[in-house]
Write a structure and sequence with these properties.
Blueprint lengths: L14 H11 L5 E4 L11 E4 L5 H6 L7 E6 L27 E6 L4 E5 L5 H11 L10 E3 L5 H4 L15 E5 L1 H9 L3 H6 L3 E5 L6 E2 L5 E6 L10 E6 L4 E5 L5 H6 L4 H6 L3 E5 L21 H7 L5 H4 L2 E4 L13 H8 L3 E2 L5 E3 L1
Parallel strand pairs: 5-6, 6-7, 7-8, 12-13, 13-14, 14-15
Antiparallel strand pairs: 1-2, 3-4, 3-16, 4-5, 9-10, 10-11, 11-12
This protein binds zinc ion (2 copies).
């Protein structure tokens, strides 16, 4: 069980203060929770990366009392900087961006879930421990997986006997994904030794994480070499959030009968595939082999939608080549001016 969240304790010697250097090291210099209505967004509380704030503001910062999700990574599978990046400014700690992942927290029950187990699992569990401390290790009521591309499941290795040696962590996955994990090393060893327990996800069938939170997986077209690919609809007592980090072009989904505009209309916040900003981003590589909706295509698609629809969209899963990964770029400004956002590590959405 999680006691009162220390982030809401204003005392100067509270764990929040002790945690500050840690969060700074992780690239989240300052955390500030804004209450509902403080942002022109349908987001209850959003942790804002803020460079300067007063002690009063610090004291006012609170984590939500009800269920919430926290963005633990906003980059594509390889993270930023990617392996092989030569020494230089890209390696400055504040530029570090983890592979796409969310934490889901229910402060009332003390339960926490991870969405995706990325190659940055170690740091992301640490971030989650900082935001929502628990006594247990790993203190996860479950891990939910979208698909078998390395940036989304390879972090499961940390459950194994070489690392944490966990007992029975529930890992929720679709049928092909479960089959893949159960029959291929090293994953099958995690199943065989009971480090993790595979639990079913079914297309379109709501999974009740507890009496507060429901997650509904839905299949999407993607390069399905080893597994299906799903997105998640995460529903709490007050808000519904869409998590769709990987999908081929929107047209392909539309051919299967689903329009992204209709899906976004049914949620309050939408974390959408923002892998690439525009065509030609990866020199010397054909981008048709790795189809994703370009950010510019998504923005054109929602151009005539009301501002209230556009402001729901927060791009996630940004590739290292995407100039919108960092604030201050022309591309980031263009996104903002068009009424969209980019997901930031550490931001919180009250569910
Ligand atoms: Zn991916
Ligand atoms: Zn993928």
């Amino acid at each position: 069980m999680m006691a009162q969240t220390p982030l809401s304790t204003p005392h100067p010697r509270s764990p929040r203060v002790l945690r500050r250097p840690l969060l700074a090291a992780l690239g989240i210099a300052r955390i500030r929770a804004l209450r509902e209505g403080a942002l022109p967004l349908a987001v209850g509380a959003t942790l804002i990366l803020s460079a300067c704030r007063t002690a009063d503001e610090e004291a006012a910062a609170t984590m939500p009392e009800g269920p919430y999700l926290v963005v633990l990574g906003n980059a594509q599978d390889g993270g930023y900087p990617q392996a092989g990046t030569k020494p230089g400014p890209a390696w400055e700690p504040e530029r570090r961006r983890y592979a796409v992942s969310l934490g889901i927290v229910d402060p009332e029950t003390g339960e926490r879930w991870l969405v995706e187990a990325t190659p940055d699992f170690r740091e992301q569990l640490h971030l989650l421990d900082a935001a929502a401390p628990v006594d247990q290790i790993p203190g996860l009521a479950g891990i939910l997986l979208t698909h078998a591309h390395v940036g989304h499941y390879a972090g499961l290795i940390h459950l194994g006997r070489e690392v944490m040696g966990t007992r029975g962590v529930p890992v929720f996955a679709m049928p092909r994904m479960r089959e893949f994990l159960a029959t291929n090393g090293p994953w099958e060893q995690l199943v065989r030794l009971g480090n993790m327990e595979l639990r079913p996800l079914e297309d379109g069938v709501p999974l009740h994480l507890n009496h507060h939170i429901t997650v509904t997986p839905f299949r999407v077209p993607h390069r399905d070499e080893y597994s299906e690919t799903v997105g998640f609809r995460i529903q709490g007592p007050t808000r519904t959030v869409l998590f769709l980090p990987d999908i081929d072009k929107w047209e392909r989904w539309e051919e299967e009968g689903t329009r992204i505009q209709d899906v976004v209309a049914g949620v309050d916040v939408a974390y959408l595939d923002g892998t690439f900003f525009a065509d030609g981003e990866i020199p010397g590589r054909s981008m048709s082999e790795i189809p994703h909706p370009f950010m510019v295509e998504t923005m054109v698609r929602f151009r005539d939608s009301p501002a209230s629809e556009r402001s729901k969209i927060r791009f996630i899963h940004l590739n290292r080549t995407n100039p919108a990964l960092f604030a201050g770029t022309e591309e980031r400004r263009a996104i903002r001016e068009a009424g969209f956002r980019v997901a930031e590590m550490g931001e919180v959405v009250e569910l």
